[in-house]
Amino acid sequence: MTTLAHPAAAPASRVTARVRPPALRQFGPNWYATVMGTAIVASAGAGLPLEIPGLRAASVVVWALSAVLLAVVLVARAGHWLHHRDRARADLLDPAVAPFYGCAAMALLAVGGATLLAGRDVLGERAAVAVDAVLFGTGTLLGLVVAVAIPYLMVVRHRVGLADASPVWLLPVVPPMVSAAVGPLLVPHLAPGQGREALLLGCYALFGMSLLATLMILPLVFGRLVARGPLPLALTPLLFLVLGPLGQSTTAAGQLADVAPGAIGAPYAGALGAFAVVYGVPVMGFALLWLALSAALVIRAVRRGMRFTMTWWAFTFPLGTCVTGAAGLGRHTGLMALEWLAVGLFALLVAAWSAAGWYTLRGVFSGALPAAPPTPRPVTVRTR
């Protein structure tokens, strides 16, 4: 009698390890921050009010880098959902990770805006408008979903208290404000009439949606700081996230006022131009106050041993929105002081982006950089 011996089946865990790329399991939604932070450097550089030799070309290069980063992160995140659905679902139920899903929408919108501002030098205006339109539409729809879904999960499934309040809570509600800042770039490319006016007023609706949500969250964040003290050292850079809705709303008000005369009647167009200044100047003042407070707390954290983590990318996009906001105010008021403020903030932005980018690359190639968002907590849910 002959016995045929069949090879033993490999353990399921070993098969899974071969099929599923292990690096993707920890690839969280926070990696979209690298795309946002890179794209805003290109947009801010292209919109600076002063002519600096070589700046335009450098902005185009940075835009191209942001586009490549977006493609890479989108593919990696798709692989994460395809091969590690358990972890992806757990992320949505983790109150420390779920808010970072707002970064996906903002990454699409940031690259779309940078494409029209800087990338058109390479693609041509027609192709740049088409790319921006696709990214704007996709990013806006995704941003609206996130702005509802993540707060819903926070209310229904996440177990959080006031002591857990964090600037990260702003991430799901800021995408509509980014849409309000990017949308005006497309208004002049629409035919005069209902389309232009609908997009203009739609952007104002997105502006209000995000602004009022931000105003509900900010008191919780500051109250937590006063009652509980500074954030943990590794999370201290997240304080810069508060600058995002401040600078982006100032940018949006200015951008919308720029295109209002060609999209809406004269009485409203003039009022919207005045609103850009009346709203933007006080908000920029508060942004500078928060910037000073955040910088002081970051310096304190550095002295106490703060090291690089992916939270350093929080220095980039929010600061970039303040650059574009200050530049817009300078454009509407004609004040050189605001223009120089934009240049000074841009210098800080480039320094922050360079530092975050360098340490991220070093961490990726050395394998020392964790891919997941900071301090993930065990999932605790409740049902109602």
Question: What features would you describe in this structure?
Answer:
The chain has helices at residues 12-19, 22-25, 32-47, 55-83, 85-93, 102-123, 125-156, 175-182, 194-228, 243-259, 266-303, 317-333, 336-366. With 384 residues, the chain is mainly α. α3 (32-47) packs antiparallel against α13. The longest helix has 38 residues, at 266-303. The relative contact order is 0.12. Residues 1-22 and 376-384 have low confidence and may be disordered.
Structural class: mainly alpha
Order of helical and strand elements: HHHHHHHHHHHHH
Mean pLDDT: 90
H/I helix tally: 13
β-strand amount: under 5%
Query: Could you name the ranges where pLDDT drops below 50 across 5 or more consecutive residues?
Result: 1-22, 376-384
Helix content bin: 55-70%
Largest sheet: none
List its salient traits.
384 residues; mainly alpha; 13 helices; 69% helix; globular; disordered N terminus; disordered C terminus
Topology (SSEs and partners):
Elements: H1 12-19, H2 22-25, H3 32-47, H4 55-83, H5 85-93, H6 102-123, H7 125-156, H8 175-182, H9 194-228, H10 243-259, H11 266-303, H12 317-333, H13 336-366
Helix pairs in contact: 3-4, 3-6, 3-12, 3-13, 4-5, 4-6, 6-7, 6-8, 7-8, 8-9, 8-10, 9-10, 10-11, 10-12, 11-12, 12-13
Brief overview:
The chain has helices spanning 12-19, 22-25, 32-47, 55-83, 85-93, 102-123, 125-156, 175-182, 194-228, 243-259, 266-303, 317-333, 336-366. With 384 residues, the protein is mostly helical.
